Amino acid sequence: MGAMPTPIDELVALLDAHDVKPDATRLRARTYELLAITPDAVMADVGCGTGRAVAEMAALGAHAIGVDLNERMLATAHDRFAEGDFRLGDAAALPFRDGELRGYRADKVLHALPEPERAVAEAWRVLAPGGRAVLCGQDWDTFVVDSAHPELTRAIVHARADRVATPRAARRYRNLLLGAGFRDAAVEVHTTVLTGADALPVLAKLVEACRAGGDVTDAEAGAWLADQRERAADDRAFLAFPIFIASATRPPSP
Ligand SMILES: C[S@@+](CC[C@H](N)C(=O)[O-])C[C@H]1O[C@@H](n2cnc3c(N)ncnc32)[C@H](O)[C@@H]1O
After folding, report:
1. Ligand 1 contact, 121 CB (< 6 A)
2. CB 49 less than 6 A from any atom of ligand 1
3. Ligand 1, atom 25, residue with closest C-alpha
4. Ligand 1, atom 4: nearest CA belongs to which residue?
5. What is the pLDDT of residue 2?
6. What is the pLDDT of residue 51?
7. Mean pLDDT of 78-103
8. Range of the domain at 179
9. Distance 39 CA to ligand 1 centre (A)
10. Can you give the pTM of this predicted structure?
Protein backbone atom coordinates (compact mmCIF):
# COMPACT_ATOMS: atom_id res chain seq x y z
CA MET A 1 0.00 0.00 0.00
CA GLY A 2 1.37 3.48 -0.86
CA ALA A 3 1.83 6.31 1.64
CA MET A 4 -1.28 8.29 2.58
CA PRO A 5 -1.49 11.58 0.63
CA THR A 6 -0.71 14.58 2.83
CA PRO A 7 -2.89 17.72 2.80
CA ILE A 8 -0.22 19.35 0.60
CA ASP A 9 -0.36 16.42 -1.87
CA GLU A 10 -4.13 16.84 -1.96
CA LEU A 11 -3.88 20.61 -2.49
CA VAL A 12 -1.36 20.08 -5.32
CA ALA A 13 -3.70 17.54 -6.97
CA LEU A 14 -6.65 19.91 -6.63
CA LEU A 15 -4.69 22.86 -8.05
CA ASP A 16 -3.34 20.72 -10.91
CA ALA A 17 -6.85 19.63 -11.88
CA HIS A 18 -8.21 23.17 -11.61
CA ASP A 19 -5.37 25.15 -13.15
CA VAL A 20 -5.46 23.46 -16.57
CA LYS A 21 -9.14 24.25 -17.14
CA PRO A 22 -9.76 26.91 -19.82
CA ASP A 23 -11.54 29.21 -17.33
CA ALA A 24 -8.61 29.08 -14.90
CA THR A 25 -6.10 29.69 -17.69
CA ARG A 26 -8.11 32.71 -18.87
CA LEU A 27 -8.28 34.12 -15.33
CA ARG A 28 -4.52 33.84 -14.85
CA ALA A 29 -4.00 35.55 -18.22
CA ARG A 30 -6.30 38.36 -17.07
CA THR A 31 -4.23 38.84 -13.90
CA TYR A 32 -1.07 39.17 -16.04
CA GLU A 33 -2.78 41.84 -18.17
CA LEU A 34 -3.76 43.75 -15.05
CA LEU A 35 -0.18 43.54 -13.76
CA ALA A 36 0.95 45.29 -16.97
CA ILE A 37 4.04 43.09 -17.33
CA THR A 38 6.95 44.78 -19.11
CA PRO A 39 10.28 43.16 -20.09
CA ASP A 40 12.44 42.29 -17.07
CA ALA A 41 10.04 43.95 -14.60
CA VAL A 42 10.48 42.32 -11.19
CA MET A 43 7.17 40.78 -10.17
CA ALA A 44 6.26 38.50 -7.28
CA ASP A 45 3.63 35.79 -7.14
CA VAL A 46 2.95 35.50 -3.41
CA GLY A 47 1.60 32.15 -2.24
CA CYS A 48 2.92 30.80 -5.55
CA GLY A 49 2.06 27.16 -4.83
CA THR A 50 3.45 24.89 -7.55
CA GLY A 51 4.82 27.84 -9.52
CA ARG A 52 2.64 27.77 -12.63
CA ALA A 53 2.04 31.54 -12.62
CA VAL A 54 5.74 32.24 -12.07
CA ALA A 55 6.58 30.21 -15.17
CA GLU A 56 3.86 31.96 -17.18
CA MET A 57 4.91 35.45 -16.05
CA ALA A 58 8.53 34.63 -16.89
CA ALA A 59 7.41 33.48 -20.34
CA LEU A 60 5.80 36.91 -20.77
CA GLY A 61 9.18 38.55 -20.11
CA ALA A 62 8.97 39.39 -16.39
CA HIS A 63 11.63 38.60 -13.85
CA ALA A 64 9.09 36.58 -11.88
CA ILE A 65 9.73 35.49 -8.31
CA GLY A 66 7.53 32.99 -6.46
CA VAL A 67 7.19 33.23 -2.69
CA ASP A 68 5.51 30.61 -0.53
CA LEU A 69 5.47 29.71 3.15
CA ASN A 70 5.38 25.99 2.47
CA GLU A 71 8.68 24.24 1.72
CA ARG A 72 6.97 21.25 0.08
CA MET A 73 5.12 23.56 -2.32
CA LEU A 74 8.38 25.33 -3.16
CA ALA A 75 10.13 21.98 -3.75
CA THR A 76 7.34 21.04 -6.19
CA ALA A 77 7.68 24.42 -7.91
CA HIS A 78 11.47 23.92 -8.21
CA ASP A 79 10.99 20.40 -9.61
CA ARG A 80 8.54 21.65 -12.23
CA PHE A 81 10.29 24.90 -13.20
CA ALA A 82 13.98 24.37 -12.47
CA GLU A 83 14.94 27.79 -13.85
CA GLY A 84 12.30 29.59 -11.72
CA ASP A 85 13.21 31.97 -8.89
CA PHE A 86 11.37 30.61 -5.82
CA ARG A 87 11.84 31.88 -2.28
CA LEU A 88 10.60 30.82 1.13
CA GLY A 89 8.69 33.65 2.76
CA ASP A 90 5.56 34.84 4.51
CA ALA A 91 3.07 37.11 2.75
CA ALA A 92 3.17 39.31 5.85
CA ALA A 93 7.00 39.64 5.82
CA LEU A 94 8.18 39.35 2.23
CA PRO A 95 11.84 38.76 1.33
CA PHE A 96 12.06 42.00 -0.68
CA ARG A 97 13.42 45.49 -0.04
CA ASP A 98 11.11 48.52 0.05
CA GLY A 99 10.01 49.45 -3.47
CA GLU A 100 11.81 46.50 -5.12
CA LEU A 101 8.88 45.21 -7.21
CA ARG A 102 6.87 46.46 -10.20
CA GLY A 103 4.14 43.89 -9.67
CA TYR A 104 2.56 41.90 -6.84
CA ARG A 105 0.15 39.03 -7.40
CA ALA A 106 -1.64 36.81 -4.87
CA ASP A 107 -4.00 34.17 -6.27
CA LYS A 108 -6.19 32.09 -3.89
CA VAL A 109 -4.05 33.14 -0.92
CA LEU A 110 -5.52 35.97 1.17
CA HIS A 111 -8.40 33.84 2.50
CA ALA A 112 -5.78 31.63 4.20
CA LEU A 113 -4.39 34.53 6.23
CA PRO A 114 -5.95 35.57 9.56
CA GLU A 115 -5.03 39.20 8.86
CA PRO A 116 -5.02 39.78 5.10
CA GLU A 117 -4.53 43.51 5.69
CA ARG A 118 -0.95 42.74 6.83
CA ALA A 119 -0.22 41.07 3.49
CA VAL A 120 -1.68 44.00 1.54
CA ALA A 121 0.35 46.49 3.62
CA GLU A 122 3.40 44.38 2.76
CA ALA A 123 2.47 44.52 -0.93
CA TRP A 124 2.46 48.30 -0.63
CA ARG A 125 5.90 48.29 1.04
CA VAL A 126 7.59 46.13 -1.60
CA LEU A 127 6.05 47.84 -4.65
CA ALA A 128 7.69 50.81 -6.30
CA PRO A 129 5.51 53.89 -6.96
CA GLY A 130 3.46 53.06 -10.07
CA GLY A 131 3.70 49.34 -9.26
CA ARG A 132 0.64 47.14 -9.65
CA ALA A 133 -1.06 44.82 -7.16
CA VAL A 134 -3.47 42.11 -8.31
CA LEU A 135 -5.47 39.94 -5.91
CA CYS A 136 -7.48 36.99 -7.16
CA GLY A 137 -9.62 34.36 -5.50
CA GLN A 138 -13.01 32.96 -4.57
CA ASP A 139 -15.30 34.04 -1.79
CA TRP A 140 -15.79 30.95 0.37
CA ASP A 141 -19.25 31.94 1.55
CA THR A 142 -20.75 32.11 -1.94
CA PHE A 143 -20.84 28.59 -3.36
CA VAL A 144 -24.03 27.90 -5.31
CA VAL A 145 -24.91 24.20 -5.40
CA ASP A 146 -27.97 22.50 -6.87
CA SER A 147 -29.03 19.87 -4.35
CA ALA A 148 -32.03 17.87 -3.20
CA HIS A 149 -31.13 19.13 0.32
CA PRO A 150 -31.07 22.94 0.09
CA GLU A 151 -31.01 23.63 3.84
CA LEU A 152 -28.26 21.11 4.44
CA THR A 153 -26.41 22.65 1.49
CA ARG A 154 -26.62 26.07 3.13
CA ALA A 155 -25.31 24.62 6.40
CA ILE A 156 -22.45 22.83 4.58
CA VAL A 157 -21.41 25.91 2.59
CA HIS A 158 -21.38 28.13 5.67
CA ALA A 159 -19.65 25.54 7.85
CA ARG A 160 -16.94 25.03 5.22
CA ALA A 161 -16.49 28.80 4.94
CA ASP A 162 -16.07 29.04 8.70
CA ARG A 163 -13.15 26.61 8.49
CA VAL A 164 -11.21 29.15 6.40
CA ALA A 165 -9.18 31.83 8.21
CA THR A 166 -10.79 34.75 6.34
CA PRO A 167 -13.54 33.21 4.18
CA ARG A 168 -14.86 36.51 2.83
CA ALA A 169 -11.44 38.00 2.00
CA ALA A 170 -12.23 38.15 -1.72
CA ARG A 171 -15.22 40.48 -1.35
CA ARG A 172 -12.87 42.73 0.68
CA TYR A 173 -10.02 42.83 -1.87
CA ARG A 174 -10.87 46.30 -3.17
CA ASN A 175 -11.30 47.77 0.29
CA LEU A 176 -8.12 46.09 1.49
CA LEU A 177 -6.21 47.73 -1.36
CA LEU A 178 -7.79 51.13 -0.70
CA GLY A 179 -7.13 50.74 3.02
CA ALA A 180 -3.43 50.21 2.36
CA GLY A 181 -3.24 53.39 0.25
CA PHE A 182 -3.52 51.97 -3.26
CA ARG A 183 -5.33 53.99 -5.94
CA ASP A 184 -7.17 53.25 -9.21
CA ALA A 185 -8.70 50.20 -7.56
CA ALA A 186 -10.88 48.09 -9.86
CA VAL A 187 -12.73 44.83 -9.35
CA GLU A 188 -14.07 42.29 -11.76
CA VAL A 189 -16.00 39.11 -11.09
CA HIS A 190 -15.78 35.93 -13.15
CA THR A 191 -18.14 33.10 -12.32
CA THR A 192 -16.73 29.60 -12.40
CA VAL A 193 -19.30 26.93 -13.22
CA LEU A 194 -18.54 23.25 -12.70
CA THR A 195 -20.99 20.59 -13.85
CA GLY A 196 -21.24 16.80 -13.92
CA ALA A 197 -18.08 14.87 -13.10
CA ASP A 198 -16.00 18.08 -12.87
CA ALA A 199 -18.08 19.28 -9.92
CA LEU A 200 -18.06 16.02 -7.95
CA PRO A 201 -14.50 16.00 -6.52
CA VAL A 202 -14.92 19.62 -5.34
CA LEU A 203 -18.30 18.88 -3.75
CA ALA A 204 -16.96 15.69 -2.15
CA LYS A 205 -14.08 17.65 -0.59
CA LEU A 206 -16.49 20.34 0.59
CA VAL A 207 -18.75 17.95 2.49
CA GLU A 208 -15.90 15.77 3.73
CA ALA A 209 -14.29 18.76 5.46
CA CYS A 210 -17.60 19.41 7.26
CA ARG A 211 -18.10 15.76 8.15
CA ALA A 212 -14.56 15.37 9.49
CA GLY A 213 -14.97 18.57 11.51
CA GLY A 214 -18.29 17.45 13.01
CA ASP A 215 -20.38 20.16 11.31
CA VAL A 216 -22.66 17.52 9.78
CA THR A 217 -23.29 13.90 10.77
CA ASP A 218 -22.01 10.94 8.77
CA ALA A 219 -25.60 10.25 7.68
CA GLU A 220 -26.17 13.84 6.51
CA ALA A 221 -22.88 13.89 4.62
CA GLY A 222 -23.65 10.49 3.08
CA ALA A 223 -27.13 11.51 1.90
CA TRP A 224 -25.87 14.82 0.54
CA LEU A 225 -23.02 13.21 -1.37
CA ALA A 226 -25.20 10.37 -2.68
CA ASP A 227 -27.47 13.01 -4.26
CA GLN A 228 -24.45 14.70 -5.84
CA ARG A 229 -23.08 11.37 -7.11
CA GLU A 230 -26.41 10.58 -8.76
CA ARG A 231 -26.46 14.03 -10.33
CA ALA A 232 -22.88 13.72 -11.56
CA ALA A 233 -23.60 10.31 -13.11
CA ASP A 234 -26.46 11.94 -15.01
CA ASP A 235 -24.53 15.18 -15.85
CA ARG A 236 -26.78 17.13 -13.43
CA ALA A 237 -24.30 18.24 -10.75
CA PHE A 238 -24.04 22.04 -10.64
CA LEU A 239 -21.62 24.20 -8.68
CA ALA A 240 -20.95 27.90 -9.33
CA PHE A 241 -18.84 30.42 -7.46
CA PRO A 242 -17.60 33.93 -8.15
CA ILE A 243 -13.89 34.61 -8.53
CA PHE A 244 -12.93 38.19 -7.72
CA ILE A 245 -9.96 39.94 -9.31
CA ALA A 246 -9.03 43.29 -7.78
CA SER A 247 -6.22 45.44 -9.08
CA ALA A 248 -4.73 48.77 -8.04
CA THR A 249 -1.68 50.98 -8.39
CA ARG A 250 0.70 52.20 -5.72
CA PRO A 251 0.76 55.99 -6.23
CA PRO A 252 3.92 58.02 -5.79
CA SER A 253 4.60 58.80 -2.13
CA PRO A 254 3.22 62.20 -1.09
C1 LIG B 1 -4.63 27.55 -2.59
S2 LIG B 1 -2.90 27.67 -2.80
C3 LIG B 1 -2.80 28.69 -4.25
C4 LIG B 1 -1.48 28.53 -4.96
C5 LIG B 1 -1.32 29.37 -6.23
N6 LIG B 1 -1.39 30.79 -5.94
C7 LIG B 1 -2.35 29.00 -7.26
O8 LIG B 1 -3.21 29.83 -7.58
O9 LIG B 1 -2.29 27.88 -7.78
C10 LIG B 1 -2.41 28.81 -1.51
C11 LIG B 1 -0.90 28.91 -1.37
O12 LIG B 1 -0.60 29.96 -0.43
C13 LIG B 1 0.46 29.53 0.40
N14 LIG B 1 0.40 30.30 1.64
C15 LIG B 1 -0.48 30.19 2.65
N16 LIG B 1 -0.23 31.09 3.63
C17 LIG B 1 0.85 31.80 3.22
C18 LIG B 1 1.60 32.88 3.77
N19 LIG B 1 1.28 33.39 4.96
N20 LIG B 1 2.63 33.37 3.08
C21 LIG B 1 2.97 32.83 1.86
N22 LIG B 1 2.30 31.82 1.28
C23 LIG B 1 1.25 31.30 1.95
C24 LIG B 1 0.21 28.04 0.58
O25 LIG B 1 1.36 27.34 0.99
C26 LIG B 1 -0.25 27.65 -0.82
O27 LIG B 1 0.84 27.29 -1.64
Report:
1. no
2. yes
3. 70
4. 49
5. 54
6. 97
7. 97
8. 7-140+165-192+243-249
9. 26
10. 0.94
Pocket flag, ligand 1, residue 8 (CB < 6 Å): no
Domain assignment present for residue 214? The answer is no
Does the beta carbon of 54 lie inside 6 Å of ligand 1? no
The one-letter code for the residue type at 229 is: R
Query: How many other CB atoms are there within 10 angstroms of residue 132's CB atom?
Result: 24
Would residue 221 count as lying in a domain? Answer: no
Looking at residue 135, the DSSP 8-state letter turns out to be E
Q: Provide the H-helix boundaries in 103-252.
A: 116-126, 150-162, 169-180, 196-212, 218-233
Task: Output the residue whose Cα is nearest ligand 1's atom 14.
Answer: 47
Q: What is the pLDDT of residue 16?
A: 86
How many domains does the chain fold into? 1
The pLDDT confidence band at residue 17, using thresholds 50, 70 and 90, is confident
Sign (positive or negative) of CA dihedral 191, 197, 201, 206? positive
Q: Give the model's pLDDT for residue 8.
A: 86
Ligand 1 close to Cβ of residue 68 (< 6 A): yes
Is residue 82 domain-resident? yes
Residue 1 has pLDDT above 80, yes or no: no
Q: Nearest to residue 244, comparing CAs of 141, 160, 146, 104?
A: 141
Mean pLDDT of 24-35: 97
CATH code, domain carrying 44: 3.40.50.150
Q: Is 70 near ligand 1, meaning CB less than 6 Å away?
A: yes
Residue 225 inside a domain? The answer is no
Atom in ligand 1 nearest the alpha carbon of residue 92: 19
112 in contact with ligand 1, CB cutoff 6 A:
yes
Helix then strand then coil, % of the chain, to nearest 5: 45, 25, 30
Check if 164 has its Cβ closer than 6 Å to any atom of ligand 1.
no
Q: Is 251 left (phi over 0), alpha (psi -120 to 50) or beta?
A: beta
